[in-house]
Each structure stands twice: as C-alpha cells, then as structure tokens.
Design goal:
The complex is a heterodimer of chains A (about 110) and B (about 110).
Chain A lengths: L8 E5 L4 E6 L7 E8 L6 E6 L4 E2 L4 E4 L5 E6 L8 E9 L12 E6 L1
Parallel strand pairs in A: 1-9
Antiparallel strand pairs in A: 2-7, 3-4, 3-8, 5-6, 6-7, 8-9
Chain B lengths: L3 E4 L2 E4 L5 E7 L5 E7 L5 E8 L2 E5 L6 E7 L2 E6 L8 E8 L7 E2 L3 E5 L1
Parallel strand pairs in B: 2-11
Antiparallel strand pairs in B: 1-3, 3-8, 4-5, 4-9, 5-6, 7-8, 9-10, 9-11
Classes of the chains: A mainly beta (about 110), B mainly beta (about 110).
C-alpha cells in the first residue's frame, strides 16, 4: 500500500511554477522521497528524490519539511508538456527495491 | 537508443491463449521489473529480478511466469489468458542499489 497522500488533481498556468504537495506522515528514517510522472500512459519517468535536504535538478526542485512528514515538488516554469500524473513515493533504497505507486496527482498545465 | 524496450507495443488475443512479452535493457542494470497498470490506472509491481534471480513476486497468479535468460532481458509469459489480464504491462530496470528506475513504453494487452 502507498504510504503517501496527494491531491487527485491540480491546474497550473503555463509559465508559472507548479507546486505539487505530498504527505508522508509515517515515513521512516531510512526512507527516501521519490517523484515520478507518467505522461499520457507512457512509462513512468523518474524526476527527483531526496532524504531530508532540499534537492534540485534540471527538471524540478524537491522541498522536504524538517520533520519529513511532507514534501513539495516544484516545476519552476511549467510547460504544456508537463501535463501528467505525478506520483510521490517513499522507499528504502538499500533494501526492497520496489516502487509502490499511489494514485498520484493529475497536473494539467493550462495555456 | 532506447534504454528499456518492450515488444510488442500492442497485443490483442483471445481468452485461453498463451502469450509472451519481451523486455530488454541496454543500461547495464542488474535489476529488472514487471509492473501492471490496470484500467483504473493503478500501477503495481508484479516481479523483480536481480542478476537473473527472482527477488520480488507480488502474489501474482502462477499463470504469469517471468523468465530472465540474462540480466539484460526479462520476459513475461502468460498462460491461459483471462479477460482480467487486460492491462498495460511495463518493464523497468534499475541498479541494484540504484537511484532511479527506467521504464519501457509499455505493452497494452487486450484479451477478448
């Protein structure tokens, strides 16, 4: 079972920052927060992951609260191609390798 | 170059038939997976292999039999197909202690 809670859907205007929240109040100390997205039934695509520090890469930024019970994925300048379902996942890296997907957030970028 | 490739992309077959889906990765990863995404878009893991050895089997019916001839390939064979097997099947790979999993483009299986 997924250990995360996400809003089912969100809209964001093109060019604006998209902020996608995720609650993971039961996260364990050795669990990382991962974000994937799935564009129109293509295979899921890795975006970013983090443990407790904020992370940034070429796709997005990940902000994790100090208590690690929630996080926010930020797409700084959303484009129409960012329309997708975004999944927040917690997992232990050095153990069972499986990803447990929840229902995700359907993000729609509006022109 | 496609990192994780699956064939076929679409598969339509009758109930009771046996079919296979092939998956190959050229990333040099040690771990490969099969996921199933049903009509409600729930994405669930089915199997995971590490260096040709089964490490995860998520209570999938034994009509589903994964086979890994080498660590770059993980094929999925399905016997006696049922209507409920209709779904999109995704193959993925990752390093054993890896950061990210790479997914294929999926195989849409329709059982009629």
């Amino acid at each position: 079972d997924a250990k995360t809670t996400q809003p089912p859907s969100m809209d964001c205007a093109e060019g604006r920052a998209a902020n996608l929240p995720c609650n993971h109040s039961t996260i364990s100390g050795n669990e990382y927060v991962y974000w994937y997205r799935q564009i129109h039934s293509q295979g899921p695509q890795y975006i970013i992951h983090g443990l407790k520090n904020n992370e940034t890469n070429e796709m997005a930024s990940l902000i994790i609260t100090e208590d690690r019970k929630s996080s926010t994925l930020i797409l700084p300048h959303a484009t129409l191609r960012d329309t997708a379902v975004y999944y927040c996942i917690v997992r232990v890296v050095f153990g069972n390798e499986k990803l447990t997907f929840g229902t995700g957030t359907r993000l729609t970028i509006i022109p | 170059d496609t990192a994780v490739s699956q064939t076929p992309k679409y598969l339509v077959t009758q109930m009771g038939n046996d079919k296979s889906i092939k998956c190959e990765q050229n990333l040099g990863h040690d771990t490969m997976y099969w996921y199933k995404q049903d009509s409600k878009k729930f994405l669930k893991i089915m199997f995971s292999y590490n260096n040709k050895e089964l490490i995860i089997n998520e209570t999938v019916p034994n009509r589903f039999s994964p086979k890994s001839p080498d660590k770059a390939h993980l094929n999925l064979h399905i016997n006696s197909l049922e209507l409920g097997d209709s779904a999109v099947y995704f193959c993925a790979s990752s390093q054993r202690v890896g950061i990210e999993a790479f997914f294929g483009q999926g195989t849409r299986l329709t059982v009629v």
